[in-house]
């Protein structure tokens, strides 16, 4: 540990001007579970090692819980020094209102443009050519987790892609398994749908709908295929009776379900249950159809502060978060991928390695947070919640409403 | 035996004296916090909300007016319509059941029984626990696979079926079970306090007249407890309108949208969807319906005072 | 001291008694079942919970979840569990409960015994206020507190609790006071007692049961409050519910249900102790009530 600290002290020399005087920075974030907290500790101890101090303001629950708190503090004129926010569209207004600190000089000094991979991560921090946030890691949704035990019980080999998986559904049913575990919550269902649309309709169609908001494409034949696939998936998920995503993951762990479409954070559950990729479970990025990952992730913003001492410290912390040492230490604990392409992640596990390979190959998508507004995402989640919960909504009805939402999206 | 609301006459014994401002001066001074709260916080914030419901405010409140757009979208949203119908079902059932259960338990506890303290604490304790975990526990108990249904089936009753949280048609009643569990204890307490405020002599008189116990409650006691019932009614109704945490914890509004409620719509659109205007429009509609429901009550209130 | 009211039961095993105790016991099962599940779950290890049946008693009893919830669970980088926010919660609770009940009981008293022109209008506005989902008031109140210079401190938070407790509490007291017989109030007026004297000497002592209800209501509400505590203060004043929320509500991480249950039960202990303690006051309230006969 002390070796890391030493290298940090050297590594952050570029902004060390103010490090002489200790400054307290209050940091708001929603990383509260065991693994997440361990990852935050890496950031905090790196920061404390510079002689400053980290005042932790952890609030669990990203969207509905933490966000009103963050906005209130900023509106109240007494903001925290640093706050986590989903980057992309969601912070736009705060930046436009001039409430966030411009980090462009820090980014230039650290040559972020050259080291951040994929570069669109930095784009989502950029408004009018200025950089306002520090991307910290990459999380992706495009994973299918499969239980080897469930397929063995059903007497079929574990599938290697989505189509084989569908073909095995009957065998799984016959063995008393739920083929596909889906937690009955809008965000999980919308997430699974998004993953299927990339795999079924392809990257171009996905980009046309999500980035260009092309309502014709959303109503067209490519997406009709997606909705038909979603109907199949809906049938496969019947009898699941779970709400929380990790309860659904638990069904895969125990072999009660064949598989689950869920983001890479699901890995933690398998790890805790003592399971290993390749032995008890398999992970298929892009449903095994198109090896492609979206690049959602976490980012930190720095609300504008009147105190110049705090402003200097904010910039110092921003530079620290991007340093290679912190990136490695943080992401190994978090189970996410680093935002720098130039660092060594050889200690990552098998599934993370697969993810790193895809990132390096450049098969990446912007995340939903970057292209769609929170309002549009909420409407999509409502639609998906309704669609998945009962057979009453046909694929054609759902597609029509989907196209309406895309049409009015901004 | 009407004990309600007929004391206005004594409030100002010096009726018609010239100095109106200093009349009841201590009372007015004592009421200053209330007046400020009513005017500044409740009226002020409500007007603020209504004004911004006509804007396209997203993350931050902004003054770009868009007319009735937010309301049009609101009433075109199937989620909002489902929310309202759910709230009506939940509201009626919860109101009736909570009042009946609360009063019955209070009456039973008031029958000079042993272990009154223990029973009262048993009925009241759920009120102390946070909604988040209350919801989680009931979610478990009502889970068809490893909750109540599973246990009864393992006893041999294979056809037993009880899965309210996973059946879109009855999910709102699954939430009702937890809602009553959590809230009825407090109502029982208020009822009990009311019963304890009733004079022993009333009971003696009823016994002398040969009126049975149940009849005494229905005919004599309940009418005497009108103010207590009004308190309970408002408390329950306010809880129903604001129903939010329990649903989030138990079903997150699911399966699908089948257990959505209006407060959840307001909150989700304000903060999760970052569409303040839409959230404000929804809350304005909620407030409007409350006003419509409360007008008869307020009318009766005023009629009552003028009669007194 | 008089006991509970109602006619005296004649025999211990009368049909009436069987009915009363039978009903109470049956209802108790409904109320106690979730508590049983919570306690049992909090004493299990995670592997056992993953197995399923929520009603089965723990095979191996472990108190580790309780220890973890109180002193080890991490919320962010601070791994000292609920204990971190406990005293903050107490610091918030005592002034908020005291002030809100003091203000509301005087309000209720003024509204029932000392009505003045317009008092009912303000009261009705207040009652309407009880129906507003408090979430929509978050931002305007932030702005209000900022203008008053109270944003971020304990005073501001206490005021917010007082304001939001006022509608229901005022209603509670007003309706209780208005069911106390007039004769007492009239007699005191004839003796020349004023507003405050009547309040302290006559009304307050008679209202003991309703004070108990008000305390139960406020202690529970304020102790379990999360949103106000976290929006109107800063981390050094965050109440215990912030840690509870962080332990229970983490979305993308492993959920430790046993620790969640232990944390909830621990958080609920303070209100629970007050509920049990309130029993005595209830009984004393009856004795006080006997005065008016």
Q: What does this protein structure show overall?
A:
With 410 residues, chain A is of the alpha/beta class. Chain A has two domains: 3-13 and 22-139 and 295-361, Periplasmic binding protein-like II (D-Maltodextrin-Binding Protein, domain 2, 3-Layer(aba) Sandwich); 143-294 and 365-407, Periplasmic binding protein-like II (D-Maltodextrin-Binding Protein, domain 2). In chain A, 51% of the residues lie in helices and 13% in strands. Chain A has a five-stranded mixed β-sheet with strand order 2-1-3-13-6. Chain A has a four-stranded mixed β-sheet with strand order 9-10-8-11. Chain A has a two-stranded antiparallel sheet with strand order 4-5. Chain A is globular and about 70 Å long. Residues 4-20 of chain A have low confidence and may be disordered. Chain B is built from 15 helices and no strands. Chain B has helices at residues 8-11, 25-30, 32-52, 69-75, 78-109, 116-124, 131-141, 148-154, 171-196, 200-208, 213-224, 226-241, 245-250, 262-272, 276-307. In chain B, helix 6 (116-124) packs antiparallel against helix 9 and helix 14 (262-272) crosses helix 15 (276-307). The longest helix of chain B is centred in the first third of the chain and has 32 residues, at 78-109. Chain B starts with 7 loop residues before the first helix and ends with a helix. Chain C is globular, with a radius of gyration of 23 Å. Chain C has two domains: 15-62, no CATH class; 84-238 and 261-290, MetI-like fold (Orthogonal Bundle). Mean pLDDT of chain C is 84; it is low at 289-293. Chain C has 293 residues and is mostly helical. Chains in contact: A-B, A-C, B-C.
- Label the structural class of chain B: mainly alpha
Specify the oligomeric state: heterotrimer
Radius of gyration of chain B: 24 Å
- Figure out the total of helices of chain B: 15
CATH H-level homologous superfamily name of the largest domain in chain C: MetI-like
The ordered string of helix (H) and strand (E) elements of chain B is HHHHHHHHHHHHHHH
How many domains of chain C, as an integer?
2
| Principal-axis shape of chain C | globular
Rg of chain C? 23 Å
What share of the residues of chain C lie within helices? 55-70%
Helix content of chain B: 55-70%
Based on the coordinates given, report the CATH architecture of the largest domain in chain C.
Answer: Orthogonal Bundle
Mean pLDDT of chain C: 84
Task: Classify the beta-strand content of chain C into a percent band.
Answer: under 5%
Our measurement of the CA-to-CA distance between the termini of chain B, rounded to an integer number of angstroms, reads 14 Å
